[in-house]
Amino acid sequence: MTELNHNNNSLKHDVFKNILVGLYEKNHDKIIGNSSVIIQKLRQKAFEHFKQNGFPDKKMESWRFTNPEPLFRDDYHIDFESKFRKIDVSKIFTCDVYDLDTYCITLINGWFAYQNSPLSRLKDGTVIGSLYKAMEIYPDIVEKYLGSVAKINEQGLVSLNTAFMQDGLFIYVPDNVKVEKPVQVINIVDSDKPVFIQPRNLIITGKNSNLTLVHCDHSLTHNISFTNTVSEVVLHENAFIDHYKVQNKGRNSALLTSLFFLQEKNSILANNVITLNGGFTRNQVDLSLTDENCTADLNGLYLMDRNQHVDNQVFVDHAASNSRSNQLYKGILDDQASGVFYGKVLVGRNSQNTKAFQNNKNILLTDETKINTQPFLEIYADDVKCSHGATVGQLDTDALFYMRSRGICERTAKQMLMYAFAGEVVKKISIEPLRDNITKLVEKRLKGELSICDQCILNCSSREPRFIQNILD
Amino acid sequence: MQNNNNKLINKVTQSDYKYGFYTDIETDKAPKGLTEDTIRFIWEKKNEPDFMLDFRLKAFRHWQKMKEPTWAHIQYNPIDYQDIIYYAAPRKKPQYENMNQVDPELLETFNKLGIPLEEQKQLAGVAVDAVMDSTSVTTTYKKALSEKGIIFSSFSEALQNHPELLQKYMATVVPYTDNFFAALNSAVFSDGSFVYIPKGVRCPIELSTYFRINAANTGQFERTLIVAEEGSYVSYLEGCTAPMRSENQLHAAIVEIVAHKNAEVKYSTVQNWWPGDKKGKGGVFNFVTKRGICKEDNAKISWTQVETGSAITWKYPSLILKGNNTTGEFFSVAVTNNMQQADTGTKMIHSGKNSRSTIISKGISAGKSNNSYRGLVKMSKEATNSRNYSQCDSLLLGNKSGAHTFPYIDVQNKSSIVEHEATTSKISEDQLFYCLQRGIDVENAIGLIVNGYAKDVLNKLPMEFAVEAQKLLSVSLERSIG
Amino acid sequence: MLTIKNLSVSVEGKLILKGLNLEVKEGEVHAIMGPNGSGKSTLASVISGRNYLTIEQGEVTYMGKNLLEIPPEVRSKEGIFLGFQYPVEIPGVSITNFMRTAINEKRKHLELKPLSGAEFLKLMEEKQKILKIQSKLTNRSVNEGFSGGEKKKNEIFQMALLEPKLAILDETDSGLDIDALKVVANGVNLLRRKDNATVVITHYQRLLDYVIPDFVHVLFDGMIVKSGGKELALELEEKGYNWIKESLKKT
Fewest CB within 10 angstroms: A187, A401, B2, B227, which? Predict the structure, then answer.
C-alpha cells in the first residue's frame, strides 16, 4: 500500500492551502529571487488567485474521480534555493536510453543541475538551459511568454506553480532552426524528506523551426514527493514539435503535470504521454489551436497496478478552421489500480472544416480496478468531422483461444495481446532508441517485472529481473 | 450554387405549431405561489389519504433546502417559483360516467390534438388517459382492461382505489430526495397515470397518456407510476403538447417504472411541448425525472423518446439493472431548432450480473439551438459479465447550432464490456445533391435524410406514434438551415 | 435538346473544361470518352447542377431554356437524369420511400396526381420486371451496403422509374462484371425512345458493344478534340488515348 493513498491523516483543504500561503509569505524574498517587476506582478496575481481559490477539490467537474486530499500534508519540505548547482549528475543518475544522443539537461528537485553553464547557446542560436537564469539573461523573451499560455484562472494548480515558480527548463528555438539533436530533460526527485517541487518549463519554437523534446520524470527516493509541474509550449507558424513525456516514478510520488500548448498557423505537434509507474499521477494536456491548418496528435499510454492512480485530462480547443486533432489514449489497469480519462474537444463557431478525433481504450485485469472515462465533444461549427469512442473491456477471448489453439500458452498469449494493445501507442514514438526502450519497458511492465523494482528502473544496473511475478493469472 | 442551395433552404417557410391553440375552459386554480398551505390545498382538493400529506410536506421541506442544478448545458432566466400556479384543473370535473358528460369544449380540445376520446372513434387497440393541466380528464377502455386485472387510471383515482399499491411503490424508484425537480414534483404533483399489470398478464392494447398544459401561468407536475408484476408485459405511450404562450411554462414530471421478474415494459414518448417562438420567447421548461428499475432477474425496460418540443429539455430517462440477466434500452431522437436547448440522455446503472444495455441517441441541431447528449454507464463491481453498447450521433444543420456529447463511463469490474461510439457531422452535401438530382426539393430532402438518420430509433416506436413522429421531425426542422 | 456552347468551367480555381461544345438531339445516343482527368465527370456535374463548380464562360441550353439558371431538382423534374459515378449511401431511407417521393414531386411539377402507395408499388414491380432486376434492392436503404454492381443497377432502375428526357450516365459501366454490365446496357436500350436522348460517359469501349452510340466524342484536356461515329470508339480501344495525344501534337 502506498503511503500516499493511505494518508489517513491528510489535512483539510483549507489547512493545506493556508500552509502553502504561509510558506509563500514567509519565503517571499527568496522566491522572488531575480524576478523582474513584470514576472513579480504575474507571480503576485497568481498567488492572490490561489489564496482565493485554493487547491482543486472533488466538487470540481475535472476532479470528480481524483481525490487530491491524500496529497495534503504538513511535512513537505520546499527548497527555495538551489542546492544542486554544481553537481556531477552522472554520478547519481544515468539515462537508460543508450543510443539516444541528446542535449541532456537535469533538474533535481526542480532546480537546474549543471556542471558548467546554466544556459547554453548553440551555434544555430538555440538557447537551452535554466529558466531561473533565462529570467536574468533574456528577460524580454521570458516576460513575453511566461504565463501567456498557461490558463491561470481555471487551475488552482497553475496559480500555485506560478506563485512559487523559480526554476525549470527554458528552450528558445529561433525562426528557421531545426534543432539537430533531441533535447532531453530529466526531472529527478531526490530527498530524504517529503518534498514539494514545482518546476516551471517554458519552451518557445520560432517560425519554421523543429524541435524534439523528451521529458522524463524519475525519483531516486522512496520518500514522499509531490511534484506540480507546469509547462508552457509555444509553436509559432509552421513549427514542428515532437514531444514526449515519460514517467516512471516510485509509488510514493505524486506527479501532477500541466502541459499547455499553443499552436499557430500550420504548426504540427506530436505529443506522447507515457505513464508507466507512479503512486498518483495526473497529466493535463491543454491544447489551443489558434490559427488555421494546425495538426496535433495526442497519444497517451498508462499501465498501472497495485493501488496506483492515473488521471489523464486532455483538452483541445479548436479555435480556428481547417485544423485536425487526434487523441488516442490507452491504458491497462491491474490489481487495485484506478484510472480516469477526461477528454474534451471544443470546436468554436468559426472553426469550420475541423477534424477532431478522440479515442480512449481500456483493459481492466481485475475486479478491483476502476476506470472512469469521459470523452466529451462540444461543437458549435457545422462543417466538422468529429468522432469519439471509448471502450472498456478485456482481452479478446477469441484471439486468446486462437493463439492457444496454435500452441501458445495462455500467459504468453495474454502478454502478447496486451503488448499489441499498448503497441498501438508505442509505435507512434518516432525516435527509434526511445521507442525501443519504451518497448522494452512496456514488455517488462506487462510481465510484472517493472513494478517490483518499484523505482528507478531506468537506472537499474542489472537488466535481469529479480524474479518474475505472474500477474496475469 | 452553394448560395443557391442556402437560398432555397431559406425559402422554406416556418410552419406553425399546430398545437398552439388555447381552450377557454373554466378551471379551478390554487392561488399563485408555493407554501405549505398550497400543498395542503392540493391535498384537500384531491381528497387524498393522510400518508400523502406527510409525503408531500416532507418533499416540500426537503426541496426548500435544495438548489436548482446548474451542471447541464442549458441557460435560462431564473424561474420564480412563487409566480407559478401549482394547481389548475378543469372545473367541470369530477367523475364522468360516460363520454356524454365530458365538457364538449374539452372533447373538442383533444380532438384538435388528434386524440379522440370517444371510444368508438378511437384507433383500435389504444387506451387513452388524457391529462389536461395536471388533471386526468378521462381514461378510456377501462372496463376491458379491468377484466384482465389491469389497472390503468389517473393517479388520483388510484390513490382513492388502490392506496396500498401506491404506498408500496410510489417514490421507490425516484425518491423525493433525488433531485431538485423531483422534490418539487413530489410536493405539488396533481395527477398523472397509474398502471398496474398483474402477474403473467400481457396487456393486449397500448396504453397511452396525453398531457396538455392549457391554463396560463400554470406549471404541470404530473406523476406516472407503472408496476409490471412477474412475467407481465405492457407498452405505454406518452404524448405532450401545450398552447403557444409568450411566457415560459414549467413542467416537472416524474415517471417511475418497476419491472419484476421476467416482466417487460416499453415506454415511448413523443414530446412536443410548445418550444417557444423563433426568437426564443416563451416555451415550456421541461425538467423531467424518469427512471425504471429492473428489480428482479430477466426483467426488461426500454425507453424510446422523440423530443422535438420544449424551450428547455432536461431529461435523462434512466434504468437501474438490479436483477441478473436484465436488459435496459434507451432509444432517443432529439431535435432542436431556433433557440431551443436540450440536455438529454440516460443513465444505465448495472448492478446485476449479465445485465445488458443499449443506448442509441440521435441528436439533430438546427437554427441557433444547442443539443447535448449526457449519459452515464456504470458497471458496479457486482455487475460481472455485463455489457453496454452506446452510439450517440449528432447531426448539425446550419452553422449557428451546437451539438455536444458528454458520456460518463464508470467501470469497476474486469469482465464487463462497455463500448461507446459517437460521431458529429453536418448533413451531407452529397446526399442532399443526390436527392435534388432526383427532383426532391431541399425541404423534403432534409426531411427524408433526417428521418433516415433517425430510423433506428423511430422503428422502435409503436406504429401510430411512428407516423406522427416522422411528421414531427420534418415539421420541426422546417426552415432549419440558414 | 441540349446545346453546350464554348463552356469553360473551373473547380477550386483550376480550369477543367476549356471551351467545350456539344449538341445532343432527341433520339440520339452520344458517347463521351476520354482519359482520366479529361473533364468527363465535370461535364456531368455541370449538366446536373452540382454546386462546387464555377462557370467561367459559355452557355448551356436545354429545351430552349438556360440550364445554368435552373436549380438541380427542377432540372430533374424537367427530365434530366444523372446516373452517378459514385452513388451516395443514404442510411435509413428506403428506396421505395425515396423514389416515391421523387416521382410524386415530378408529377406535382407536371401537374399530375400523385401516385398512391399501391400504384407506386405496381410501377416498381413493372420496371423491375422489364429490367430483369431480381434482387430485392427495393426494401433496402438507398445504396447502403450495396455492392458496386448493385449501386449501378439501382441507378438504372431509378432512371427507368423517372423516365428522363436526357439521361447522363457517368461511368456507369466502371467496376461492373459482365452480367451487371448487360443489365445496365439492357436498361439503357429498353428506355431508348424517339423523344429522349442518352449521353454515356465512359473510359472504356466495353459498354459501347451493348449500347450502340450514334456519336462518339473524345474529351481531352477539357475540350472535345474529335467526334465521329461508333467506329471511333473501336479505333480508340485499339490505339489507346496516346494516339489522340500524338495526333493532337501533330496538328
Answer: B2
Q: Which three cell numbers stand for residue B242?
A: 401545450
Report the residue of A392, A397, A473 to disrupt the B interface, i.e. the one with the largest count of B CBs within 10 Å.
Answer: A392
- pLDDT per residue, tens digit, chain B (482 aa), is 334 333 333 333 234 565 655 666 666 777 888 999 999 999 998 889 999 999 999 999 999 999 999 889 999 988 999 988 888 776 554 444 444 555 566 566 656 555 555 543 444 445 666 666 655 555 666 777 888 999 988 888 899 999 999 999 999 999 999 999 999 999 999 888 899 999 999 998 888 877 666 666 667 888 999 999 999 999 998 876 656 666 778 889 999 999 999 999 999 988 888 888 888 888 889 999 999 999 999 999 999 999 988 899 999 999 999 999 999 999 999 999 889 999 999 999 999 999 999 999 999 999 899 999 999 999 999 999 999 999 999 999 888 899 999 999 999 999 999 999 999 988 888 899 999 999 998 888 888 899 889 988 888 887 767 777 777 777 777 655 54
Residue B454 lies inside a defined structural domain of this protein:
no
Residue C178 sits at φ, ψ, to 5 deg, of -65, -35
Query: Which residues of A are less than 8 Å from B398 in CB distance?
Result: 382
User: For residues C25 and C63, what is the distance between their CA atoms, to the nearest angstrom?
Assistant: 10
Q: Of chain B residues 405-434, which have a CB less than 8 A from chain A? A: 405-426
Chain C closest-CA separation from residue B447 CA (Å): 10
Q: How far apart are CA B16 and CA B24, in angstroms?
A: 20
Using a CB-CB cut-off of 8 Å, the residues of chain B touching C162 are 438-439
- What secondary structure letter does DSSP report for A287? E
Cβ contact C–A (≥3 pairs, < 8 Å): no
Q: Nearest C-alpha of chain B: how many angstroms from C106?
A: 6
Chains with at least 3 CB pairs less than 8 angstroms from chain C:
B
Task: Write out the residues of chain A at the interface with chain B, using a CB-CB cutoff of 8 A.
Answer: 61, 65, 349, 352, 362, 364-394
List domains and CATH numbers for chain C: 2-250 (3.40.50.300)
C-alpha cell of C227? 467526334
- Of residues B53, B234, B238, B216, the one with CA closest to residue B129: B238
Q: Please say whether the beta carbons of B428 and C39 come within 8 A.
A: no
Query: C24: Cβ–Cβ under 8 A, 6 or more apart, which residues?
Result: C1, C2, C3, C30, C166, C197, C199
Is B414 in Cβ contact with A367 (below 8 Å)?
yes
Chain A residue numbers with beta carbons less than 8 Å from the beta carbon of B402 are 378-380
State whether B455 and C91 contact (CB < 8 Å).
Answer: yes
Residue B386 within any structural domain of the chain:
yes
In this predicted complex, what is the ipTM?
Answer: 0.81
Count of domains forming chain B: 1
Q: Which of A28, A438, A11 is nearest to A248 (CA)?
A: A438
Which residues lie below 8 Å from residue A190, measured CB to CB, with a gap of 6+?
Answer: A92, A108, A109, A219, A220, A221
Residue B6 CB coordination number (10 Å): 15
Q: Which residues of chain B make contact with A381, given a CB cutoff of 8 A?
A: 396, 399
Q: Are C37 and C28 in contact (CB under 8 A)?
A: no
| Contacting residues of C for B2, CB less than 8 Å apart | 51-52
The candidate with the shortest Cα–Cα distance to A203, out of A136, A141, A112, is A141
Question: Who among A61, A374, A382 is closest to B407 (CB)?
Answer: A374
Sort A290 into a burial class: Cβ within 10 Å, 0-12 / 13-18 / 19+.
Answer: middle
* Strand duo A111-113 + A103-108: pairing: antiparallel
Q: Tens digit of pLDDT for each residue in A151-191?
A: 876 668 999 999 999 999 999 999 999 998 999 998 888 88
Subunits adjacent to chain A (3 or more Cβ pairs under 8 Å): B
Whether residue B465 is contained in a domain is answered as no
Domain limits for position B158: 27-428
